[in-house]
Design a protein that fits this description.
With 394 residues, the protein is an alpha/beta fold. The chain contains 14 helices and 17 strands. Strand 2 and strand 3 form a beta hairpin. The chain binds pyridoxal-5'-phosphate.
C-alpha cells in the first residue's frame, strides 16, 4: 500500500490533502515521490521560514539530538535558558512559558490572563474579548476564542467567558468592555481570517483602551510573528506592545514548539504549579528554536524580508490592475493574500490545484483568498515565476 492509501485508510480524515506525498525538502523546494520538484510558497503554513532542512538548523538539531533530547521541567537545561533569555532580550517580554504548539501557547495566555486577576482576588474579571474572523487554535479554549463559527461546529457547549467584536472597529470594542473583562486577544495580522492587517490607529487605540481599563492585551503572533511580516514581531510594525504574546509555527522551523511570553507584571499570574506541560521547552526543540531566532532576528535578514515582501506585493498589485477578477491584495512582509471574486467552479481551491500541477505550493482560505507565506529566503525570480503562472491562470 502506498503512503496516500495508507494515510487515507488509517489516519483520521480531518484534512483535505493534495494527492501527492512529499519525500524531501531543501531550501524553497519540495520533491514528491515521483521526483517532481515544487516551489514552496506556503512553508508548511508559515512554519519553515528558513526553508526546508536549513543547514544551521539541521546542525543544531543533530548536535542536540546526539547530546540530550529530553529531561523533565523538574530540571534545568541550557538550550531552554538560552532561548528564553534571547526571546526576552529581543522583545517587550520578561518571562517565557514553553509549549508545544500554537494552540497550547494560546491556552497558556488565556489561563495567565484569567489567573492574573483571580490571584488578586478579582474573581469576576474572567472575560476575554477576541475578534471576528480570528483564529487561535483547535483546543476547547482556543476554538472558543476563535471568531469563526465553522471551527466550533459540533463542539458545543463552549467555554464560558468569551465574546467577539469586529476586527479594526474600536467603537465595537469599547462597547464590549466592562468590569468583567480580563483581556483583549488579537492577531496583529489575521492569518486564517483572510490575511487582514490591523489598522495602525486601531492597534494604538486598543492599547490605550486596555491601559485605561486595566485590561491585559494579548497578541497572537503564531502566524504573523518571527520575521514573517518583516520585523521580528509583527507588533513592531505598529509600535504597540502587548502584555502577553504567543509564538509557535516558525519558532522551530518545523520542530514543534510554542511560547507564551509576558511582561513581569502579567507574569505574576502564574506561580509554582499553576501551569505545566511535559514536553514544553525540551532541549531538542529549544536548541532548534535558538538557532532559528539567531538567524531571523538579524537586521540584514529582516531587511531582505521587507524588500522581497514589497517586491511580491507590487507584483500582485500589477496583476490586480490587469485582472478585474482580483478584488484585493493584502498583507505585510511575506504574509500576503489575494482576494478573488468567486466564479462557478473557480474558487481559491481551483487556483491552488492548478498551481500545484504547475509545481507551486500555495493555499486557499475562506474559499476566495489565495495565501502566500513562502520561506523567507524565497528569491525574486521564484516570485516572478509564480506570478506568471498565476497570470496565465487568471
Ligand atoms: C494565529 C494562529 N494562532 C494559533 C494557531 C494554532 O496553532 P497550532 O496549529 O500550532 O495549534 C494558528 C494556526 O494556524 C494560527 O495561525
Amino acid at each position: 500500500m502506498d503512503s496516500i492509501k495508507k494515510t487515507d485508510n488509517f489516519v483520521f480524515q480531518t484534512y483535505l490533502r493534495q494527492g501527492k506525498a512529499f519525500v524531501r525538502g531543501e531550501g524553497t523546494s519540495l520533491w514528491d515521490e515521483d521526483g517532481k520538484e515544487y516551489t514552496d510558497f506556503l512553508a508548511g503554513i508559515a512554519v519553515c521560514s528558513l526553508g526546508h532542512c536549513h543547514p544551521e538548523i539541521t546542525e543544531a538539531i543533530s548536535r542536540q539530538a546526539a547530546t540530550l533530547v529530553h529531561v523533565s521541567n523538574l530540571f534545568y537545561t541550557m538550550p531552554q535558558a538560552d532561548l528564553a533569555s534571547k526571546l526576552c532580550e529581543k522583545s517587550f517580554a520578561d518571562r517565557v512559558f514553553f509549549a508545544n504548539s500554537g494552540a497550547e501557547a494560546n491556552e497558556a495566555a488565556i489561563k495567565l490572563a484569567r489567573r492574573y486577576f483571580q490571584k488578586k482576588g478579582d474573581k469576576n474579571r474572567f472575560k476575554i474579548i477576541t475578534m471576528e474572523q480570528s483564529f487561535h487554535g483547535r483546543t476547547m479554549a482556543t476554538l472558543t476564542a476563535t471568531g469563526q463559527d465553522k471551527i466550533k461546529d459540533g463542539f458545543y457547549p463552549l467555554l464560558e467567558g468569551f465574546s467577539y467584536v469586529p476586527f479594526n472597529d474600536i467603537e465595537a470594542l469599547k462597547n464590549e468592555i466592562d468590569e468583567t473583562v480580563c483581556a483583549v486577544m488579537l492577531e496583529p495580522v489575521q492569518g486564517e481570517g483572510g490575511v487582514i492587517p490591523a489598522d495602525p490607529d486601531y492597534l494604538k487605540a486598543v492599547r490605550k483602551l486596555c491601559n485605561d481599563n486595566g485590561i491585559l492585551l494579548i497578541f497572537d503572533e503564531i502566524q504573523c510573528g518571527m520575521g514573517r511580516c518583516g520585523t521580528l514581531f509583527a507588533h513592531e510594525l505598529y509600535s504597540v506592545t502587548p502584555d502577553i504574546m504567543t509564538l509557535a509555527k516558525a519558532l522551530g522551523n518545523g520542530l514543534p514548539i510554542g511560547a507564551m511570553m509576558a511582561t513581569a507584571n502579567a507574569a505574576t499570574g502564574f506561580d509554582f504549579g499553576s501551569h505545566a506541560t511535559t514536553f514544553g521547552g525540551t532541549p531538542l526543540a529549544t536548541a532548534a528554536a535558538l538557532a532559528v531566532v539567531n538567524i531571523i532576528s538579524q537586521e540584514t535578514f529582516l531587511d531582505q524580508v521587507c524588500q522581497k515582501g514589497q517586491y511580491f506585493k507590487d507584483k500582485l498589485e500589477q496583476l490586480k490592475e490587469k485582472h478585474s477578477r482580483i478584488l484585493a491584495v493584502r498583507g505585510e512582509g511575506l504574509l500576503l493574500g489575494l482576494e478573488i471574486g468567486l466564479e462557478k467552479d473557480k474558487d481559491a481551491g481551483f487556483f491552488v490545484g492548478e498551481l500545484f500541477k504547475k509545481g507551486f505550493i500555495i493555499n486557499g482560505i475562506q474559499d476566495k483568498i489565495l495565501r502566500f507565506a513562502p520561506p523567507l529566503i524565497i528569491e525574486e525570480n521564484q516570485i516572478d515565476r509564480l506570478i506568471s503562472a498565476l497570470d496565465s491562470l487568471l
